[in-house]
Every structure is written in structure tokens, then in C-alpha cells.
Amino acid sequence: MWVADKFRSDLFDLMHWSGDKRTANGRSATSDQEPDMVWNLKLTNKRYPFAVECKWRTDFIQGRIDMAKTYQVKNYLRYAMDEDIPVFIVLGVGGKPKAPSDLYIVPIEKAMGGVLSFAELQPYRQPMKRMSFYYDEDAKSLSY
């Protein structure tokens, strides 16, 4: 919810939001293998799509953080290639899921293996002073 609320409605359309529902025996829709959200940046009469997978972790463990399982990263990479759109992991660390202490936005191709060290994540750290996400359609980069 926190991530979705940080996209300005005058600039972004939320095109898809995965439900991530499972049955008691673990069965889920194949769409659960896709990123959580697909957004469109709206500029004049053009749309620029990208996808976001939301993650929150309490803290780093021994200087590393497990953002996603390897198979999940592979699924998101496949989705990015199939749909020809950028995919980002938006990772909140510390605080609470609805108010993380730190925020990182990692392009999916930089998340290979799903586990990154504190040092490896630093280029993707975002200042928490801003109030909304920004997508640069030319650079195909997401920031906060």
C-alpha cells in the first residue's frame, strides 16, 4: 500500500496490481509470478510502462539482505523481457512496511541471486525526504 500511495495519480496510472493470494495447499495464480504492480507514466499522449515488485525487510543480516528468491528474480527478468518493460524491486528496510526507515530501488537485472550486501545496495538507496516516485522515461529509471 505504501508504495502505491507514493505514485502521483496525475502522473501515473496503475495498470495492474497482483493479489498474491494462495490456497491452503499453496496453489496460486500464475500471475503471482509477475511483479506486484504495473504502472504507466502519463506524459501528454504517451504512456511509459514499468513494473514494481514491493519488498520489505526488518534489517540486514550479517551485512546482507535477502530481497527475493532466485526463482522470483528469474520470473521478474522473464517478465521484463516478455513485456519489454523495466522491472524494479522497491525495497523498504527497517521501520514498518507502511513507513520504512530506508528505501532502495533496484533494477531487476542488478538483483541477480536475490541477495545483496549492504555495500552493493548503496547505489540504489533513495532519500526519504521526497514524497513521491519519479520515473525517467529516457533513462528507464525509477527514483524516489
Structural class determined from secondary elements:
alpha+beta
Shape by Cα distribution: globular
Distance between the termini: 16 Å
> Strand arrangement, largest sheet?
1-2-3-5-6-8
What distinguishing features does this structure have?
3 helices; 10 strands; alpha+beta; 6-stranded mixed beta sheet; globular; 144 residues
Report on the architecture of this protein.
The protein is an alpha+beta fold and 144 residues long. The protein has 3 helices and 10 strands, in the order H-E-E-E-E-H-E-E-E-H-E-E-E. The protein has a 6-stranded mixed sheet with strand order 1-2-3-5-6-8, covered by helices on one side. The protein is globular, with a radius of gyration of 15 Å. The mean pLDDT is 92.
Question: Which secondary structure elements does this structure contain, and how are they paired or packed?
Answer:
Layout: H1 2-5, E1 12-17, E2 37-43, E3 46-57, E4 64-66, H2 70-83, E5 87-93, E6 102-107, E7 115-117, H3 118-121, E8 125-126, E9 134-136, E10 141-143
Task: Put the structure in a nutshell.
This protein is of the alpha+beta class and 144 residues long. It has helices at residues 2-5, 70-83, 118-121, and strands spanning 12-17, 37-43, 46-57, 64-66, 87-93, 102-107, 115-117, 125-126, 134-136, 141-143.
